[in-house]
Structure formats: structure tokens, C-alpha cells
Amino acid sequence: GSYSHRAVMKGSDEIAQIAAEFNSLTGRLQTTEEARRRFVSDASHEMKTPLAGIKLLTDSILQTENIDLETTREFVADIGDEAARLERITEDLLRLTRLDSGAMEPAVKVAVGPVLERAVRMLRPVAQERNIDLSWQADPAAIVLATEGEIHQILYNLMENAVKYTAPGGFVHTEVCVDGGQVVMTVADNGMGIPEEDMSHIFERFYRVDKARSREVGGTGLGLSIVGDTVHRRDGQITVAAREGGGTVFTVRFKKVSGVTA
Ligand code: ADP
């Protein structure tokens, strides 16, 4: 008697457990589905603005009688700017989709210094144009397990933001050092800073502190979510903090690996 009673109890426990598991899974799927819907809706919204601009500009050219060459050129240049914005959005969306797919290239030993040097070289013209002092320093022992493309993407996006959100005359300083068993990369600027209440959100897709400002500097609102996802998929950590004396510091940590091939 007691045996069968216990068996039933045990059985219903298991069923309850399975039910709870099922409910939790359904909940998670719903959240994922909701996030996906929101993402598609946000992305569409984001692309609608430049598309509307292109449509308006072409209509203006076509509907203005005896439009002069100079005005035409001006409008066409604006159309080009909107197209460039669309291109940036699509590129970032494709990057995120690839990250979401979970497909990963095999990790290799990446020396961070040379990757940083290349990213700085690419950003130098933008920094010069904005009169921002761009400096860097890297420990040759800073070697991590990832792909060069991933490390480039992380450093490039962080430095590009730092340049974009710092006023002319400011600086952006990137440092890569070894701290015990870790490689620590910091990107510091003395720019406009990020309000405390926004810091926990800036890695979310399409989140911006100041939408108008982001658009003005050509932002898509996706840069930091790409950085965050890339860091996490390689088991790294990323944090953001206010810089003492004004500005922002982003810190990325990865496990350090030895340069000697075993
Ligand atoms: P965006 O394309 O708008 O730059 P990101 O995902 O790269 O999008 O960054 C999200 C937001 O975080 C930006 O819109 C900006 O408000 C803020 N932000 C990022 N980096 C910095 C920085 N170095 N200084 C100040 N604000 C920043």
C-alpha cells in the first residue's frame, strides 16, 4: 500500500517537474519570440527614416520644374548620405544575425597589439577631422583566444564611439595590458560621458542615450550590442564606467593565453 502510494506521489512529482520545466521553456520561448518581434520592428523603423528621406529627395528633384544642376547635385548628395546610412544599418544587422546564429569560427591565438594598431590606423582620419588625439599602448604579451576579426570589431567599435562622442580637442586613449591571467583592454575618452541611469542599457539593441546625437554622428544604435555579444561569446567580460575627470571608460577582459604554441 505504502509503496504504491509513494510511487504515485513520485510519479506526480515528476509530472509536476516536467510541467514546470515545460512552462518555463514556453515562457523563455515567448520572451525570445517577443524579443525577435521587437527587433524586427525596431530594425524596420530604423530603415524607414532614411528610405523616406530618399523618397522625398527624389520626388523633389522630379517634381521641381527647371531644377538647376547645383540643387540637383545637392539633393543627390543627400540621397547618397541616406543610402550610406542604410548600408551601415544593414551591415550591423547582418553582423548581429551572424552572432545570433551561434555559428563560430574556430578560436585562434590573437595578439591584440597589431589588431589595435590596425584599428587605430583606420580611425586616424576621422579622429584628425574631429581634432581628437588618438593614442594607444599595448603589451606584446596580450594574447587571447578569439578571431582577429572579433578583436578588431570590439576595439574598432569602442574607439569609433569614443571619437564620435568626444568634443573636438578631446582625447581617446586605448590601453591593452596583462593583469595576472587576464588581458585587459581599456578605451578611455574625455567626452560627453554616459549618464549613470543609461549605463545598464547601452548594450541593448538600438538603445541610445541621445537619438538625435547618435543619428548626427552616423550611429545605428547597434555598435555596442555587437561588441557586447562578441565579447560574451568568447567568454570575456565588458564593463563601462564614468571616467574620473569626465568622459567614459570601457573595459574588456579576456583570459590571457601564452604565446608559445603547445
Ligand atoms: P550608436 O550607433 O548610437 O553609437 P552604440 O550601440 O554604439 O550606438 O552606442 C549606444 C549609445 O551609447 C550611443 O548612442 C551613445 O549614446 C552611447 N555611447 C556609446 N559610447 C559612448 C562614449 N564613448 N561616450 C558617450 N556616449 C557613448
Automatic annotation (TrEMBL):
Reaction(s) this enzyme catalyzes, per UniProt: ATP + protein L-histidine = ADP + protein N-phospho-L-histidine
GO cellular component, one term: plasma membrane
Residue span, HAMP domain: 1-34
Top enzyme class: transferase
Domain Histidine kinase residues, every copy: 42-258
Localisation: Cell membrane
Membrane association type: Multi-pass membrane protein
EC number(s) recorded for this UniProt protein: 2.7.13.3
Record keywords, A-Z: Cell membrane, Kinase, Membrane, Phosphoprotein, Transferase, Transmembrane, Transmembrane helix, Two-component regulatory system
GO molecular function per UniProt: phosphorelay sensor kinase activity
Domain of life of the source: Bacteria
Name listed for the protein in its UniProt record: histidine kinase
Organism encoding this protein: Vescimonas fastidiosa
